[in-house]
Structures
1.
Amino acid sequence: MTSLAAFSLDVPIPAPGLSVYSTGALEAMVLAGREALDCQRVLKKVGLNLVGELLKGQGDFLEFNHYPDGDVFDRETGGQYYYHAHRAGEHGHFHVFNRPPVDPVSDQVLAPTHLIAVSMDAWGEPLGLFTTNRWVTGEHWRDAKATLDLAERFALDHAWPSWPVNRWITALLACYHPYLDVLLAHRDQEIARLAASDAAVFENREIEVIGQLPIDLPAWVATLEEALRKRQG
């Protein structure tokens, strides 16, 4: 698997910790991690992978194009994602969003907030998580707490374009909640620091990725399981 080094603009990103999470939260993260691994397993068993699932029937894989065409969106949950490529050191990455519930009066789809991006390697396995500046996705910017609240509610409850991929990305965000917590806090800290000298920081094209952490899903699930075992005695 290709390696992806930790990265941040200036302030170091603290290692995600588990001590602040309840036993119930740890149990939920363990289950989510096992679900994500199982989605990868059932695809690999028949020679498939997560990225290949998304690219089926999508024509040539072109830099910056969204895959699948039109993105993946669940109107009931507000979950949304797309996959594309333009960075060195990875095959491509998912941009994952959530929107508040659809307004029941106007039936309008509200503005999305970018939750996290997920780097993928050439074998269709996750490499890392990273946060981006607002201009990258044109999102409705929400602070770390509000973004994390949306991440906790993220779900894709349908089978297009791939049931395993939708289940996987839902489970991945759930099991990596501690990573999102530190990455989003770091993102806000860096934006506040930069805004002190750049009022237009959100549109500064020189600032794209704000913070990045490598991930290893099997190792993280093992860490979660060990933390849960210790908590349960």
2.
Amino acid sequence: MRAPDPISSAIETRLAAVQASERLSAWSLIVSFMGDAIGPRGGVVSAGALQTLMQRLGIGAGAVRTAISRLAADGWIERSRDGRNSFYALSGDVGDTVLSAERRIYAQTSLLPAGTPRSLVIAPEPLSDATLRDIETAGALQLTPQVFLCFALAEKLPAGLRLPGATLADAPTLKPGAAMLEKMAEARQVSEFERLRAAYQPIRAALDLGPTPTPEDAITLRCLMIHEWRRVALRVLAVPAELVQPDDPEPETRSLIAAVYARLLPASETWLDENVMTASGPLPPPDARLRQRFGCSRA
């Protein structure tokens, strides 16, 4: 009897774990795939190829259609037809959002330069959940219900952190105590980085020891990994390098994800070449963004 392929086994194990944790949202998975794999190759994917990949990831045709309809209604996806064939592309209206996300997803680090200024924003009253989410997205650390630590001079804070009626103050000598370090570890997504590191170390070992993955396995694992990685990379709080604890798991985890990505890239691009069409023919070759991801320049 033929021994099971270690890469295929690793994919099934990881896929089952993600499905069990209910982290596999169809619409989010489609956006991850479109941004990661299709964006650098012209931005258009055929419906048939998308359905094939999603099915491999355990997402049924009905769920894909529902997700596409939702994404189109929300302005994320543009749909077109050529005869009987349908094609999807990320909307031009979300272009800046996608590029901003890519810079964070594929960066070498989330850390800010050592010595980055810090300031405090003191809100005049407790804030709504929506405003708190906006402040978190803008890169601030909530210290109390109304006090936020920001990493920029008060006069240079982005608009999202200039709350109406708030007091702004530079805090160049502010050093985190135990309580602040605990909040920072949570905002730094420490537990999520550790979870991903534990999940993908065996997969890297399988890639190092096993045969070259098939194109189907490579694109499946690439899509799944970037989907998981994207969730963490877009939420991690960027802080000055000197405030990071020695055991911060981000550097090792980011390096691990970058290494697995590099191993999967050639075979996964072969899958795209062989399976994805546009209305005018095959996908164009990848642009420079793909070669420079995670700070690596690939020929």
3.
Amino acid sequence: MISVRQCSRPSCSLAAAATLTYVYDDQTVVVGQLSAHAEPHAYDLCAHHADRFTAPRGWDVVHIHQELVERGPSDDDLDALARAVRQAGTPPMVEEVVVRPPLASEPRRGHLRVVSADS
């Protein structure tokens, strides 16, 4: 199941709508579409914080213009959740093992044996 990523800003619990990355060589900050996967050197921002972001002094900001929409769970996410709940609610399959008693003609195979003093 894919969870909804949250804004990286402290005390903000809104869903992420954009990804912010720093290009240190060019002293540029790029704010664009939410990346497909969470990246360790990028920041996910909600629409509110992405629109109001300011870069460090002397740095350029590149806003890749798009409609920033906070994404909720998709139909695929909801379908995967429903399947997981159904699977968790079904009892596990148990194989029935039938143990039959040994027949009188079969020798018993116990874990004890007789040891005589002569041997």
